[in-house]
Amino acid sequence: MASMNLIARIHAALERRYGVRAARRVLSNPLDDLILAILSQKTGDTNSCRAFQTLRQVLPTWEQAHRAPESAVAEAIGSAGLAQYKAARIKAILRQIYRVQGHFDLTFLRDVSVEEATAFLGRLNGISSKTVARLLLVSLGKPVFPVDAHIRRVACRLGLVSLTLTPKKIQAALQSMVPLPLLFPMHVNLEQLGQKTCKMPTPLCDDCPLSKLCPSTR
Ligand code: SF4
Fold this sequence. Notes:
Blueprint: H1 4-18, H2 30-39, H3 45-58, H4 62-67, H5 70-76, H6 83-101, H7 114-122, H8 129-139, H9 149-157, H10 167-177, H11 183-196
Helix pairs in contact: 1-11, 2-8, 5-6, 7-8, 9-11
Iron/sulfur cluster is lined by residues 154, 157-158, 197-198, 203-205, 208, 210-211, 214, 216-217.
């Protein structure tokens, strides 16, 4: 397992590159983030954010989106692509939440255990474990380290985890080695590094803030 010293040095180098992030930013609305995750499938942030904003302008509450025809939701989210498919998923999720809760406020999940929140979100149709982990950290402030393809690649190249581990085991390994206050900033910064520098198939090691710490540097 990586030493605390190595984790601290990686964190410091990433902060020098990307700036200091709060240990735990102001938590965002869990249902907003869940819908945004659906909208972001197979499209970029710009398109999914635009679709989200239009949806909130046309149907300002989740209650209204729940009651609106699927076609109205699809029309509002057109800029995200796959509008019919995504509208159907959004409507299904809203129906499911309303059936279970009778309302659309998921902030109560901040006050339950990680296991309970994971179980609740995991029961929602079509929500991946990756999305659940991200909601746990970003929207609910739980001590979880979500692992997407970028973080998996960077963590493996840095030698923090083995490529042979499953995403679930990589998540558990990173959670055990990253101190609690660093979970959020390290998650966001490693993701950025993966998107901008430690890319597939060829990493841009000459421009990497971690090149002196990385066994895979070229
Ligand atoms: S030095 Fe290269 S391989 Fe290592 S983390 Fe940076 S970009 Fe990735």
